[in-house]
Design goal:
The chain is an alpha+beta fold and 482 residues long. The protein has one domain: Cytochrome p450, CATH 1.10.630.10. It has 17 helices and 12 strands. It has a 5-stranded mixed β-sheet with strand order 1-2-8-5-3, with helices on both faces. The protein has a 3-stranded antiparallel β-sheet with strand order 4-12-9. Helix 13 packs across helix 17. It is globular, with a radius of gyration of 23 Å. The N terminus is likely disordered. Bound molecules: protoporphyrin IX containing FE. Protoporphyrin IX containing FE (HEM) binds next to helix 4, helix 11 and helix 17.
Length: 482
């Protein structure tokens, strides 16, 4: 049977505002008077709750958060359009921007209007893949450090929490690349910057989904912990900025060597909107954006690899061919051969999306499909249904990394349904860096070790902390014979 044509073939249907359905007319879970569904929402499980409600009420459905409607849809084609019509017609939702501002990381991710483009250009330039040759030796050094850590764990039979290990790796890489400072958190124990950062995303999500800002008047112990964490993280970032300034003072004038220098030089020139607060917000934005996303995407591969010997062996073969006698990938030329590593993470992100939901707000009334989204209302997309739909991906329940390789592609494979990096003018500027990290880490891991998950994969729990993170990912590494 021929697959049904992808929904993208249907033009985005701008219906008459007068005939469109409003949020209030959509079905949805029954709420209580005044508070609506606010008492039912569990921020850390929100994506799972929304998926379950979409199965029960269909898509789109609506939630009522104390009178504020949220329209929830699994229509990935409509969301493609929404994401492309930025920054003019759609923005990140107001609660996201307010919460980021309150916590001091209202940098590029939450910038809107005329503040967005200059920051975007600066960060795009800093993360551009043309810098890879200068940066590659550092990537090798940090990856080798992770190898040594894994080697020690495998020698003693220690069970590692893979997400935690990978978060140390991504923080070291992002810091070194963007701020010229490698904090070596992989080899550190005790009080690390990640432990503080780990509290920020869950708090951000809670604030976005909580209509009453009780924490301002009645700080709970959790809120006080968050305040301490924010203070520590801001202190860390301020120290980075102070050192960056000092280094600039001491060196010959010339090209910026990393993003922090580029921001400090722009601020000094007086030609930009960047002040100290914005620089700090962007340093923090990059640390946060670069850490969880990449680490979680890599970590979610573990159950698929552990359960799929063929996939592990295919990766091990590709990785050994590229690494030869080296501990880590020896050159950019070899890095480019590691397509199966990248395909494995893409496939894992398809089945276990790292970005569970997207939330947007229109700047004027917009019709999406047959639903009116009024200015200031929120529309939320749940991504998993499309990623696991036969409409976009052949045999969607099967873990088959090869589907992402051009030469092995057959049947339905509509990449436009894969929005894990967003799309349009605000597509993730760190996606190339993320995929370089993926290639470095997976090739090192699979060339030297076999991965065993020490709990049944059915026991893995997804926690929404802005990105979807595994509650735990206990892994034992077995050294491969050389
Ligand atoms: C697997 C890893 C990653 C995933 C899944 C991911 C995903 C995303 C998504 C979904 C967005 C929103 C895109 C949109 O609105 O259309 C985004 C934006 C962003 N990402 Fe990533 N990201 C990853 C890695 C990184 C890394 C490594 C960095 C930098 C070190 C980074 C920095 C950013 C920034 C600064 C933005 C805001 C862009 C803007 O609003 O213009 N990301 N990312």
């Amino acid at each position: 049977m021929l697959p049904s044509p992808p929904r993208f073939a249907i033009p985005f249907d701008r219906m008459n505002v007068a005939t469109a359905r409003t949020a209030e007319s959509l079905p949805g879970p029954k709420g209580l008077p005044i508070i609506g569904n606010a008492h039912q929402v569990r921020p850390e499980r929100l994506h799972l709750q929304m998926e379950a409600w979409a199965r029960e009420f269909g898509s789109p459905f609506r939630l009522n958060m104390m009178g504020d409607p949220i329209i929830v849809s699994d229509d990935v084609a409509a969301f493609q359009q929404i994401l492309r019509q930025r920054p003019h017609d759609w923005q990140r939702s107001t609660p996201v921007r307010l919460a980021a501002q309150e916590m001091g990381f209202d940098g590029l991710f939450t910038a809107e209007g005329e503040e967005w483009l200059p920051q975007r250009k600066l960060i795009m330039q800093a993360l551009n893949h043309t810098h890879l040759p200068e940066f590659f030796p550092l990537l090798q050094r940090v990856t080798e450090r992770l190898y040594r850590r894994f080697e020690r764990a495998s020698a003693t039979g220690e069970i590692v929490d893979m997400t935690d290990e990978l978060m140390r790796y991504t923080v070291d890489v992002t810091s070194a690349l963007a701020f010229g400072e490698d904090p070596n958190t992989i080899d550190q124990s005790g009080d690390r910057i990640q432990q503080h950062m780990a509290l920020i995303f869950p708090a951000l999500l809670r604030r976005i989904m909580t209509p009453i800002h009780w924490w301002r008047w009645l700080p709970s112990p959790g809120e006080r912990r968050l305040q301490r964490a924010l203070k520590a993280v801001h202190g860390h970032v301020d120290a980075l900025i102070a050192r960056g300034r000092e280094q600039l003072r001491q060196r010959e004038p010339g090209r910026p060597r990393h993003l922090l220098e580029a921001m400090l030089m722009q601020a000094q020139s007086g030609e930009s909107l960047l002040d100290d607060r914005r620089i700090r917000a962007n340093v923090l934005t990059l640390l946060l954006a670069g850490e969880d996303t990449t680490a979680n995407s890599l970590s979610w591969c573990m159950p698929f690899l552990a359960e799929n010997t063929d996939a592990q062996e295919a990766l091990a073969q590709e990785s050994r061919a590229a690494l030869g006698d080296s501990l880590v990938c020896p050159s950019i030329a070899q890095l480019e051969r590691l397509d199966l590593c990248e395909a494995t993470v893409q496939e894992s992100m398809r089945l276990r999306p790292t970005i569970g939901i997207f939330m947007m707000t229109p700047t004027s009334d917009q019709v999406v499909g047959d639903v009116l989204v009024r200015k200031g209302e929120r529309i939320c997309m749940i991504h998993r249904p499309a990623l696991q739909s036969a409409q976009y991906f052949d045999n969607p329940a099967q873990f088959r990394p090869q589907r992402w390789l051009r030469e092995a592609r057959d049947g339905v494979h509509d990449k436009r349904a894969f929005l894990q990096f967003g799309t349009g003018p605000r597509i993730c500027p760190g996606r190339h860096l993320a995929m370089v990290e993926v290639r470095m880490v997976l090739s090192m891991l699979l060339a030297h070790f076999r991965v065993e998950l020490t709990i049944p994969s059915a026991d893995l729990e997804e926690v929404l902390a802005f990105t979807v993170t595994p509650k735990r990912m206990p892994v034992r590494l077995h050294r491969r014979s050389q």
